[in-house]
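Sequence in, structure out. First:
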Amino acid sequence: MTRRARILLALASLLVGVSVLLPLWRIDLVAPQYPEGLGLLISTHRITGLKEGDLGSINGLNHYIGMAPIVPEAIPELRFMRPLFLALAVAGLATAAVGRRVPAVLWSVAFALLMVGGLADMWRWGYNYGHNLDPHAIIQVPGMSYQPPLIGSKQLLNFRATSWPASGGWLLALAGVCAALAVLDPRARRPPPDASPGAAPDHRAEAG
């Protein structure tokens, strides 16, 4: 690997490590009766309200439409995501220090799979909460489900739900760009000058 590729890989690893200190995703809910909005912040190890009391208010509203309460302690992913991210960051720094291309590619693939798996798991989590409703709920709308969008906005009854990456999520996106630039660095695959197809043979050894 070139020096630039190693620096990019180390930067990607550091960004992954820093992301565990920040929220990865943000979900906002706005309705006429809540003009100031309600919100959730999803991190590697916890789910909190955007403001104090927001999580409790959202759980209270969910009760009326039959959604299960959001209990962070009951979500298994929140117990291992932070250690997994930190282990990935340490492995990336070690890979950058070694400076070999194959381990760097393997690290980048593992990082990409973790990101795709995380998004898929978040979609599944939202699907389960939005579709597995209590049949005895106080408010029932035939055919209605309440799955929040993974990215973007969606109308859910009188609430407008919006979901976007938070600061930690944008750091992970930047880490992905850095990792891609590291493994796709054209200078890392360029053959040395003496191995180029048109290189003249060295006849110095034949002198004498």
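Second:
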Amino acid sequence: MLEDKVAIVTGASAGIGRAYALALAAEGATVIAAARRLSDVNTETNTLATLVAEASSLRGRIYAHTCDTASEPEVINLIEHTAINFGRIDVLVNNAAVLWQIDALDVSGDVWDQMMITNVRGPYVAIRQAARHMKQQKSGSIINITAGAGNFSPKSNHPKMLPYAVSKAALNRLSYFMAAELKPFGIAVNSLSPGVVASEAALKANPNVLSAGTHKPATPEVLGPALVYLAQQNSETITGEVLHTDEFQKTWPKVS
């Protein structure tokens, strides 16, 4: 389904990003999986190194690339390294993000800036660089991983998540803007919300995720189908949308 396609997934060593990288590789894509570290002394499982090994039996291949998306030079290097070494960029999944729960009136300027740099500027820089290659191809799909906290409706405060919510709202606006900007070049740009996922990051931020009973596991089987579908879109099919994984094959794609 995605043979001969080259995809980049940021924040790919664990959780949601890891599931996305595996799902794309299972469909035959060559995946450049990016995260801040190749390995981690604190874990032997959720690392880029173990991700590459886990994908060895899949139809596609996964290659590791260290990249801190808060660093503009590192994001530029990730995109250019991919284009030079693999010849093209077909799919960009902006998944890397940070989340801290802080009372709305206690957020420091440094925390605010760090969250905006990672969650908004990082995806923008990746889009800016990748779009240059996609425009030459006249094709591509960019998927920004968002969250319900960034929605304007239904109205919800999402306690202690103000800067995160603002960053995801900005990411959705970035998707809308870039969808229109890149439509003439055949490039799709969408936001995808995975919903409540019992990833390590989510459990660390909110230990009550499991007891809420609305969570889903961070597996390619559960999270992958919606992302793989969006990875195949172009500007004439689905673009400029904010979509939810739980609604895939229900409310979207629309049947004409």
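Remark: The chain has one domain: 6-247.
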